[in-house]
Amino acid sequence: MKNVAKTALIVLLVVLSFGMIFTGCAKESGNTIKIGGIFPLSGAVAVYGVECRNGIMLAIDEINAAGGVNGKMLELISEDDEGSPEKSVNVYKKLVTKDKCSVIIGSLTSGCTAAISSLAQAQKVLLLAPAATMESITDAGDYVFRACFIDPFQGTVGGKFSAETLQAKRAAVLYDIGNDYSIGLYENFKKTFELSGGTLVAAESYSTGDKDFNAQLTKIKNANPDVVYLPDYYGTVALIAKQLRAQGITAPIVGADGWDGIIDNAGDEVLNGFYSNHYAADSTDPRVIAFVSSYQKKYGSTPVSFAALGYDCVYLLKDAIVASGSTEPTVLKDALMQINNAYVTGNLTFDAKRNPIKSAVMMEIVKKDGKLTPVYNATVNP
What we know:
By secondary structure, the protein is of the alpha/beta class. The chain is about 45% helix and about 20% strand. A hairpin with a 2-residue loop joins β15 (about 360-370) and β16 (about 370-380). The longest helix is centred in the N-terminal third of the chain and has 21 residues, at about 1-20. Belongs to the leucine-binding protein family.
C-alpha cells in the first residue's frame, strides 16, 4: 500500500508540473481561437465521432461566416481517439502541448472522457464533454463541463417510460458487465421501474466484445417480460436485437442515447424499439428546424443527437466568450456557470456539478417509406 501511495504521489506531482507548464497556453493565436476536439472517428463507435465533429464544424462555419467571436475566427483541431481511453490521453496531450489548445471538446464516450478529465482539471484546461453521460465525469473539478444529461436521469427516463407509457409490469435487462455506461443505466432503470410498481424478472449480463447472447436471451424469454431494456451502444444492440427477435421475443425493447445511429446498422428487428435521446430531429422547434436543414444541406443526411450536442458545445463556448470578453479557461468556466440560453438540445443551465439541467426525449423506431426512422414519442422533464 505504501508503494502504491508513493507512486500515486509521484504521478500527481508530474501531472501538476505538466499543468504549470501549459496552463498559460492561450487558445488565441493572432486572429484565431483554437478549439481542440477529441472524437472516435474510427472504430466501433465512429458514428458518434463523425457526427459530433460535423455538428461542431457546422457551428464554426456559421459563426465564422457571421464575423467570428469578438472579431476572431474559430478553428477546430481534431484528433481521433478510436474510442480508446489510452489514445484519448495521447491525443489530449498532443492538443495541449503541441497545438496549444486550452479548450477541448470531447471525448464522446464516458470511458474516454474519464481518462482525460483529471488531466484537464490539473492543467486548468476547459473540457466540455458533448455526450459523456457517466455521473462521475464532472467530479474531476470545475474545469469539466458536459452538454448532455447524466446516466441516472437517462436510466430513470427509461424506467418511467416503460412503466407509465408502455404500461409494462415485468421487465428484463441485458447489460455489459464491463461498461460503466451500461451498468449505470441498468441500475437506474431498475430502481425507477420498481418504484413505479414494476418487477424486474431477469437481469442478465455479458462482457464487452461478446457476439453471442443466446444463452442470456433464453433465460430472458423464459422470464416472459413485457419489456426488455438494452443499455448499450448501437453496434452491440443491433446484434442483441437480431438474436432476441430470432428467439421469438416480441416485447418492446428500450434503450438510451447509445442507440443513436442504430437505424443504419440494423434491420426490422429494432422495430417496436424506443430510446432516450437529447433531441428529436423531427421537432417543430425553430432552432431544431434550422439546424437540421443546415446540416442536411452541408452533409446530405439527418443529424443524430451527437451532431446536435457538438453544435451546442460550440455555441455554449461562443456565448461564454462573448459574455466574459475572454478566452481564458479560468474566466470561461465562470461564464459558463451563468449560461441560461436556448439551444438545439433544449434550454440549458448548469447545476453546481456543471451538469446541464434539461429535458430528454423518447424516440420510437418506425418504418417510413420502407426505411427505418426514429420519430419523436414523448418528452420527460428532469
